[in-house]
Design brief:
mainly alpha; 14 helices; globular; 289 residues; MetI-like fold; 2 domains
Length: 289
């Protein structure tokens, strides 16, 4: 029986591979097509002044001008922009991970009337476009005197964060074995102690996923800082791209060099933690099991 299965296995494997080949080729073509903007950005960042608008597009410039990176970095106070972005990202990361995990654990384990209704209401806010809440939020922060400060960008992260993060962590917490929590409860641990000492260590894959998503979101955020930050000294790295356009000309090659430097940390973050990210998404979708 084993020898028969072994003899039939290679043809079956080749047949399955042949059937999957068109799908793999289509996915490969889509992946290559999605990389075209990235390739264009990198190639434009090393072009000479004026060559970035050449038609047809020069995908491989004859001359490499790496000085565009130095010029784009020193043209504006990029180090100040970098510091501001790091401050916002770090505080939002702390707020969204810990308060989001606490809210998610409450939805997953706490028993109170209207829990499911409240959770559905929270999820329904994901369907609201940002522009719907933009004006009320701006009026609120203006009355609080928070315009041109980092507070409008940081404080909302300490109130649960994005609803998707709460949903993701709730699914993860619901998949954790309840026996460990019951044992901790028998030993006299309360709700917050169980959350901190039992649930949080077990939810590291989900927390890592939320942390990566939070970093990417706030590092790349352009609209919110544009609305609330007025002075250049408070600008983030994302807002620095807007400064390359003036009344007379636009240094598109320098702007692309700046964009490459801004994108590089995002790529490094994903490649370093892609296993944790995929594992967290998968485990959350499977209920944490």
């Amino acid at each position: 029986m084993a020898s028969t299965a072994a003899s039939l296995s290679p043809p079956d494997q080749r047949g399955r591979t042949a059937r999957q080949l068109p799908v793999h080729l289509a996915l490969l073509a889509m992946a290559l097509f999605s990389l075209l903007p990235l390739v264009y950005m990198i190639s434009t960042s090393v072009k000479a002044d004026g060559r970035e608008f050449a038609v047809p597009i020069e995908w491989a410039p004859e001359e490499i001008h790496l000085e565009n990176y130095q010029r784009s970095f020193t043209r504006f106070p990029t180090l100040i922009f970098l510091r501001n972005s790091v401050i916002i990202v770090v505080f939002c990361l702390i707020g969204e991970v810990f308060t989001g995990a606490l809210v998610a654990y409450g939805f997953a384990r706490a028993r109170f009337p209207g829990r499911h209704v409240l959770f559905m209401v929270m999820l329904s806010t994901m369907m609201l476009p940002q522009m719907v809440t933009l004006i009320p939020q701006f009026i609120l922060f203006r009355e609080l005197g928070w315009i041109n400060t980092f507070l409008p960008l940081i404080v909302p992260a300490f109130f649960g964060g994005h609803p998707f993060y709460i949903f993701l962590l709730r699914q993860f917490f619901m998949g954790l074995p309840s026996e460990l929590e019951d044992a901790a409860r028998i030993d006299g641990a309360g709700f917050f102690r169980i959350w901190w000492s039992v649930a949080m260590p077990l939810a590291k894959p989900g927390l890592t996923t939320v942390a990566i998503l939070s970093i990417l979101t706030h590092w790349n955020d352009f609209t919110t800082p544009l609305i609330y930050l007025k002075s250049t000294k408070n600008f983030t790295v994302a807002l620095g791209i807007h400064l390359f356009k003036d009344s007379y000309q636009m240094r598109f090659n320098q702007q692309m060099a700046y964009a490459v430097m801004m994108t590089l940390p995002v790529f490094l973050l994903f490649f370093l933690f892609q296993k944790n990210f995929i594992r967290g998404i998968t485990f959350s979708g499977m209920g944490g099991r």
